[in-house]
Structure formats: C-alpha cells, structure tokens
Specification:
The chain has 487 residues and is mainly α. The chain has 21 helices and seven strands. A hairpin with a 2-residue loop joins strand 1 and strand 2.
C-alpha cells in the first residue's frame, strides 16, 4: 500500500532533526503494515520512552532491516509493543540475533541461569527471560517467517528450559531444609512430564502447558535444617514450588499457565504421585481420553530415565493391539460434546482450534487412527502431529492426497492461530467477528483482503472436514462407533 499524506506528515514530524535516511527507511517499513496509523503511534511512544537509549535513530538511518524489524513488531502485536516499551534494551539484542536459528534447550538453560545470576531474583529473572525469548520467537515468525514447526519447537524448548530451571531451584530449596529424599534402594528420583502440545513440541504462543509430576518410590528425607518428610510429602511440596515458579502471576507476568488436571487420579490427587501409583491407575481405571493424552507424553525435566520408564510402561495402555467399541465410543462422546458447545455458541465456522475443519479435527482424525493401529505398527506412535500424518501416509492408512491435505491444512490453521495469539498474548482461537479487525488479521497473514483470506480458510476447513467425515463413516477395523458423530 502507499503511505498516506497524513502518515507522511506524521513521519516528517517524528524524524524532524534526524537523518533523512531514517525517514526513508521508516516510510518503506510502514508500507506493508496492516495498521499503519497504530504502528506509527506505537513507534512515537516507543521512541519517546527510550530517549534514544539504544541509538535507535542511528540504527533507523543506517539499517532498513532495523526499521523493518521494529515496525513489523509494533504493527503485529500490542503485547510485543508493551514488552519493548518496558524493556527497550531487547530491541538491539533482537536486531543482532540470527533469527534463522532455533536455540537448543541447553542453550536456553544457560541463558536463563546467566540471567538469574545477574538479576539475583529467580522469580523475576525467569519471567524477564520468558518475555525476551517470546519476543525473539515472535520475531522469527512475523519477521523472518520461520516455518511453523521451528516456531513451535522453539516455544517448546523455552517451556522445557524454564521447567528445568524451576525443578532445579525448587529441589535445591527443599533439600536445604529437609535433606535428600531416599528409598530403600538409594536416592529417590523425580521427573516432570510434558503432555499435549508441549509433549509433542507443538506449543502455541499462548498455550497452557500440561504437566505430570512423578517420583520413583516411597521413602523419606533424613531431615536437614528442618524436619524429615516422607517422599510423598517432599515431592508434593516440590510440585507446588515448580507450579509457583511457572504459574504465579507477578508484576512481570507469569512464565506459563500450568494445567495439572491430566495427572493420574485427576485434579483431586496430590501434585506428585509415585511411578507405581501412576501405572496402577492407568492399568485399573485409566479412561479412554487418557489414551489420547498419553500419545504425546514426554519427560522434559528431572530424571529422564524415570520418565522414559513411565512412557515405556504405559505404551500397552495407550496402544493396545485391539480396541473395543465401548472404549472408542467414550472418545467419540467427548468430540460430540465439544461440537455441541460450539454450535450453541455459534462459532462452529470461525473457531480455528475447535471448529469444523479446524486444528482439533485434524488432531482427532490422526489420533484415532494412531490409537486404532499403533498397537500393531510402532511407527504410528509419533507424538508430533505432522510426523504422525506422514507415518499414516507411508503405511497407506491415509491416501497421499489426504496426508498432503492434512499437513497443509493443519499448518495453515496453526499459523492463523499463532498470529491471533501474538497480537494480544491471549488464549484466543476464534477469528475476529469485527470486519476491520478481521481485515487487519488477513493483511498480517499476507492476504490482500479479509475476503481473500476467508476464501482460503473456508476451502481448507471444508477439505479437512471431508477427510474427517470419510474416516468417521468408514465401517470395520473397530470404527462402527463413529458413524453418527456428525448427526
């Protein structure tokens, strides 16, 4: 688009007294913005607030890439604008990074420990670290256009690194008071398990993280500066501290919203349970939906060997060789209930996550095919949705067209979801109802108009829904239970 005369006048007033190159670079960077009026206002506020702390004017004059980075961040997200307004030192740090790279968990952990030493306040340090890394990952998405898979992996690595720090800090604090927890066979071990999108390394920008806390066996601590505790109590307190480190809201926000409801025995159970207790629960009373949840389970912090033992021991529960209709019927009912709520709310066709042809339709289709066939075909047990689709295609359970379509449509829906969530850092999954807001979203996604975007969106949603309906209507192989899902 061409920058209006009104905006050119505002740029002229803003640049007055600075180098002309800055005017040219700001004008060029403003042209592709979805909301140039708001963007220039945010730029004015940012520059007023920093007092040129970062030498922004020199950078704006010397580097068109710097201008594009700064204005794209300001255009795409109020949330990101607030972060750099509060912490302008993040902008030159971001500008000097290689946005093509996905840092490892180990690299992120090292950065976090350095921040904790520098700030000397662990609760604050981990939150400031999260703000900076979310800014970096968002820039990879909206400026460098990194592939969805890399962005989601980056977010999962951030969650892994912060969960690992929370576990280490919490354990250090408790051991100093009560000593090392022990069992009859030696030191007791503890593991943090990631579930859902975290387990599959598919996080969103505003995802909850679903966690389970396990410890190896019963026993007790010897007592140190405080009294002795049973292992059960020690690890429950450890879980509480980890939860607080990550979930507590402070002036710096929170690290991640933590959801513990997927743990064995549900939300009424202790935060941490023993491996034996967990395995007994799944063997005796585990529900069908928990099979789906455990497809993506992954140890993310603590004793990885304990976590891998849990994963191995639960595979027969998750992927039995044969399913009975009663088990699959209970999964069907959950899907039916979700769709009924959307129809009641009138969001069936605008909900990116749960609506018809949305993210959950892809996940539901794939996970059911995994559950039905994973007991016999180990390659189908992949935790990442795209890996699972590819494996189902290679085994001819999905046709090549279906596999390609589901990968393409899942990627599209996840990218839309990311862009919705980047704007305000809120757990939103629905397309905007307001036409002007929808228009801005479409332009931020690279479309000429909201009409062009919605044409693509509806085509992809309908294509996904047709594939889902095909498998729901297929008789045989234990799928008789699904024929009336869409009735």
């Amino acid at each position: 688009m061409t920058v209006s005369s009104t905006l050119l006048n505002r740029i002229e007033g803003l640049v007055n007294g600075h180098k002309n190159d800055a005017r040219e670079h700001i004008t060029a960077a403003l042209e592709p913005c979805a909301d140039p009026e708001t963007t220039i206002t945010r730029l004015e506020h940012y520059l007023d607030g920093t007092g040129d702390l970062n030498g922004d004017w020199e950078r704006l004059a010397s580097s068109p890439d710097y201008a594009r980075l700064l204005l794209t961040v300001l255009d795409q997200s109020e949330f990101l604008s607030i972060i750099i307004g509060r912490r302008p030192e993040f902008v030159p740090w971001l500008a000097d990074l290689d946005l093509e790279r996905t840092p490892s968990v180990e690299e992120l952990s090292t950065r976090l420990q350095e921040d904790a030493h520098a700030i000397d306040d662990r609760v604050k340090a981990i939150r400031v670290f999260r703000q900076r890394e979310i800014l970096r990952i968002a820039a990879r998405d909206i400026v460098a256009h990194a592939p969805l898979r890399e962005v989601a992996l980056d977010l999962a690595n951030l969650a892994d690194a912060t969960a690992d720090a929370a576990w280490r800090w919490a354990r250090e604090e408790l051991v100093s008071m009560h000593g090392e927890p022990r069992t009859e066979n030696g030191p007791a071990q503890f593991v943090v398990l990631g579930m859902g999108k975290l387990g599959g390394r598919e996080l969103n920008f505003s995802s909850d993280i679903d966690l389970i806390f396990l410890f190896s066996d019963e026993g007790e601590t010897p007592g140190a500066s405080g009294r002795s505790l049973s292992n059960h109590e020690f690890f429950h307190r450890l879980g509480e501290r980890i939860f607080k480190y990550l979930n507590e809201e402070t002036v710096e926000g929170r690290v991640f919203r933590v959801d513990m409801r997927l743990r064995p025995h549900g939300h009424m159970a202790p935060l941490a349970v023993s491996l034996h207790s967990a395995l007994t629960y799944y063997e005796q009373t585990g529900q069908a939906w928990e099979r789906q949840a455990l497809i993506k389970v992954r140890p993310i912090a603590g004793d990885m060997a304990l976590g891998e033992a849990f994963v191995a021991e639960t595979r027969p529960f998750v992927f039995p060789k044969f399913f009975d209709d009663e088990t699959l019927e209970s999964i069907r009912q959950i899907k039916t209930q979700m769709e009924a709520r959307l129809e009641k709310d009138g969001t069936t066709n605008t909900e990116v996550k749960l609506g018809h042809g949305g993210i959950r339709d892809v996940e539901f289709t794939i996970q059911i095919l995994q559950l039905l066939n994973g007991g016999r075909i180990t390659e189908l047990r992949a935790s990442h949705t795209i890996d699972a689709i590819m494996a189902l295609g290679e085994r001819h359970i999905l046709t090549p067209f279906e596999a390609d379509s589901l990968i393409r449509n899942y990627t599209f829906m996840r990218e839309v979801e990311h862009r919705i969530q980047i704007e305000g850092s809120q757990q939103r999954h629905a397309l905007p109802k307001d036409p002007e807001t929808l228009e801005r979203l479409a332009k931020r996604l690279g479309y000429e108009s909201s009409m062009a975007f919605m044409n693509v969106y509806n085509d992809r949603a309908q294509e996904t829904r047709r594939i889902l309906e095909h498998y729901l209507a297929t008789k045989g192989r234990g799928t008789l239970w699904v024929t009336d899902l869409l009735d």
